[in-house]
């Protein structure tokens, strides 16, 4: 139902764009977002956007990452600039439907080399 794209290996300072397309029964959403997880640590919110286009970001990515959506394509994007080795993680997209149901995409690995 959620398919993520954009797995990659980039050098520090580089950029990468992740995308996540919703299909099937996911036509509308309250929130679409990206989370990331490093082995041994809890999953953390990276960025989230509401259906009203309000956004919020983790402090560690503010000014570097931008979340956006293409509602016609039911797709959420995460543009990541000025990447740092600390951004290395498995990134997962998330959708919360108007009914409050959580949908998760399969994680995609982003590796930032120093």
Your description of this structure?
This protein has strands at residues 2-5, 8-11, 16-22, 31-37, 44-50, 55-57, 65-70, 75-80, 89-96, 102-104, 108-113. With 114 residues, the chain is mainly β. Strands 2, 4, 5, 6, 9, 10 and 11 form a seven-stranded mixed beta sheet that branches. A four-stranded antiparallel beta sheet has the order 1-3-8-7, with no helix packed on it. The radius of gyration is 13 Å and the shape is globular. The N and C termini lie far apart (34 Å). The model has no long low-confidence stretch (mean pLDDT 90).
Mean of pLDDT: 90
Helix count, per DSSP? 0
Ends distance? 34 Å
Specify Rg, calculated over alpha carbons.
Answer: 13 Å
User: Shape from CA axes?
Assistant: globular
Low-confidence stretches: none
Sheet-strand content, in percent, reads: over 45%
**What class, by secondary structure content?**
mainly beta
Q: Write down the secondary-structure element order.
A: EEEEEEEEEEE
Q: What share of residues is helical? A: under 10%
Q: How would a textbook summarize the main sheet?
A: 7 strands, mixed
Number of strands: 11
What are the salient characteristics of this protein?
four-stranded antiparallel β-sheet, mainly beta, 114 residues, seven-stranded mixed β-sheet, 54% strand
Task: Give the SSE map.
Layout: E1 2-5, E2 8-11, E3 16-22, E4 31-37, E5 44-50, E6 55-57, E7 65-70, E8 75-80, E9 89-96, E10 102-104, E11 108-113
Parallel strand pairs: 2-11
Antiparallel strand pairs: 1-3, 3-8, 4-5, 4-9, 5-6, 7-8, 9-10, 9-11
């Amino acid at each position: 139902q959620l398919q993520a794209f954009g797995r990659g290996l980039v050098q520090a300072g580089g950029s990468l764009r992740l995308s996540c397309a919703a299909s099937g029964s996911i036509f509308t959403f309250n929130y679409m977002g990206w989370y990331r997880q490093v082995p041994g640590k809890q999953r953390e919110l990276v960025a989230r956007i509401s259906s009203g286009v309000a956004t919020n970001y983790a402090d560690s990515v503010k000014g570097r990452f931008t979340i956006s959506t293409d509602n016609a394509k039911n797709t959420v994007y995460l543009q990541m600039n000025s990447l740092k080795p600390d951004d290395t993680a498995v990134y997962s997209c998330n959708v919360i439907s108007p009914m409050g149901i959580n949908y998760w995409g399969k994680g995609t690995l982003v590796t930032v080399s120093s």
